[in-house]
């Protein structure tokens, strides 16, 4: 008798430890790359709240514990980001930081590619301003 268990992206990436590392590196790049100064300016001086929310969101989004939903309710990402002027340049800056962070997390190459594509689609969905 075999069990039909599906491995989640949360498990594939390395669970909580890997997601915390990903978020840490993402905000490191946002905080230090001159090319990310546009999105850095959209954030508070202290990134700890954003850091915590991104970790909690990614945990549930990747199939792990729904920490964000438990604390804040449905993510409603587009609505939550609407106060910020997000254009293609901001999306590209966000993805630059995320891609650099993803490249530092050990994972299967095809999983990394799929995850990058999914995050790119998510980031594109946040655009609320024309160039």
TrEMBL record:
InterPro entries: GlbO/GLB3-like (IPR044203), Globin-like_sf (IPR009050), Globin/Proto (IPR012292), Hemoglobin_trunc (IPR001486). The keyword Transport applies. Keywords: Heme, Iron, Metal-binding, Transport. It holds the Pfam family Bac_globin. Belongs to the truncated hemoglobin family. Group II subfamily. This is Group II truncated hemoglobin.
């Amino acid at each position: 008798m075999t069990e039909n268990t599906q491995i989640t992206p949360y498990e594939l990436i390395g669970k909580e430890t890997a997601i915390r590392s990903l978020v840490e590196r993402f905000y490191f790049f946002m905080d230090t790359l001159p090319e990310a100064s546009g999105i850095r300016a959209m954030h508070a001086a202290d990134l700890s709240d954003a850091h915590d929310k991104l970790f909690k969101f990614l945990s549930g989004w990747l199939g792990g514990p729904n920490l964000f939903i438990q604390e804040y309710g449905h993510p409603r990402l587009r609505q939550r980001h609407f106060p910020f002027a997000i254009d293609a340049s901001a999306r590209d800056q966000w993805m630059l930081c995320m891609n650099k962070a993803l490249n530092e997390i050990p994972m299967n190459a095809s999983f990394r590619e799929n995850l990058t594509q999914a995050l790119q689609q998510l980031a594109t969905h946040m655009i609320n301003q024309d160039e």
